[in-house]
């Protein structure tokens, strides 16, 4: 007799939910890395522009050109502030997805453990049934010899 778990579809569902949570976490981590990379590029651009601004000031460039550099640096600083906010949001999202994944993993583990327990109980009952049949056969043989 083969073991069939009555709640196997729920176990499968929990496994699928865990897999989906893993994908969501992977996606959130990818988004966080993109935001960090973008922030790094903005910081590099700002540093480059600050250097160009200093060089322009040292070369006694026209005031209009220096103001243009300053305005662009200010714009980059605003973009960097916004990007810091985006990185923080992406990081919060990653933490939230990690928490969801751990809940899904725990939920799946509970159902898998319940299935294993049911399977173990089933196997024990089958062994007991087999042992009872062997005992009955031995009793019958003994009774036949006794006649």
TrEMBL record:
<keyword id="KW-0175">Coiled coil</keyword>
<dbReference type="InterPro" id="IPR012823">
    <property type="entry name" value="Flagell_FliJ"/>
</dbReference>
<comment type="similarity">
    <text>Belongs to the FliJ family.</text>
</comment>
<dbReference type="GO" id="GO:0071973">
    <property type="term" value="P:bacterial-type flagellum-dependent cell motility"/>
</dbReference>
<dbReference type="GO" id="GO:0006935">
    <property type="term" value="P:chemotaxis"/>
</dbReference>
<dbReference type="GO" id="GO:0005886">
    <property type="term" value="C:plasma membrane"/>
</dbReference>
<keyword id="KW-0472">Membrane</keyword>
<dbReference type="GO" id="GO:0009288">
    <property type="term" value="C:bacterial-type flagellum"/>
</dbReference>
<keyword id="KW-0653">Protein transport</keyword>
<dbReference type="InterPro" id="IPR053716">
    <property type="entry name" value="Flag_assembly_chemotaxis_eff"/>
</dbReference>
<keyword id="KW-1005">Bacterial flagellum biogenesis</keyword>
<keyword id="KW-0813">Transport</keyword>
<dbReference type="GO" id="GO:0044781">
    <property type="term" value="P:bacterial-type flagellum organization"/>
</dbReference>
<protein>
    <recommendedName>
        <fullName>Flagellar FliJ protein</fullName>
    </recommendedName>
</protein>
<feature type="coiled-coil region">
    <location>
        <begin position="29"/>
        <end position="59"/>
    </location>
</feature>
<dbReference type="Pfam" id="PF02050">
    <property type="entry name" value="FliJ"/>
</dbReference>
<keyword id="KW-0145">Chemotaxis</keyword>
<keyword id="KW-1006">Bacterial flagellum protein export</keyword>
<keyword id="KW-1003">Cell membrane</keyword>
<dbReference type="GO" id="GO:0015031">
    <property type="term" value="P:protein transport"/>
</dbReference>
């Amino acid at each position: 007799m083969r073991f069939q778990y009555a709640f196997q579809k729920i176990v499968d569902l929990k496994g699928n939910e865990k897999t989906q949570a893993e994908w969501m976490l992977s996606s959130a981590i990818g988004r966080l890395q993109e935001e960090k990379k973008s922030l790094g590029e903005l910081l590099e651009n700002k540093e480059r522009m600050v250097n160009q601004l200093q060089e322009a000031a040292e070369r006694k460039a026209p005031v209009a050109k220096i103001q243009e550099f300053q305005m662009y640096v200010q714009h980059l600083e605003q973009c960097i502030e916004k990007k810091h906010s985006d990185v923080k949001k992406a990081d919060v999202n990653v933490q939230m997805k990690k928490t969801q994944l751990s809940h899904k993993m725990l939920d799946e583990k509970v159902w898998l453990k319940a299935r294993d327990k049911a399977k173990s109980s089933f196997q024990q009952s089958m062994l007991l049934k087999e042992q009872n049949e062997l005992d009955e056969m031995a009793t019958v043989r003994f009774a036949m010899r006794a006649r």
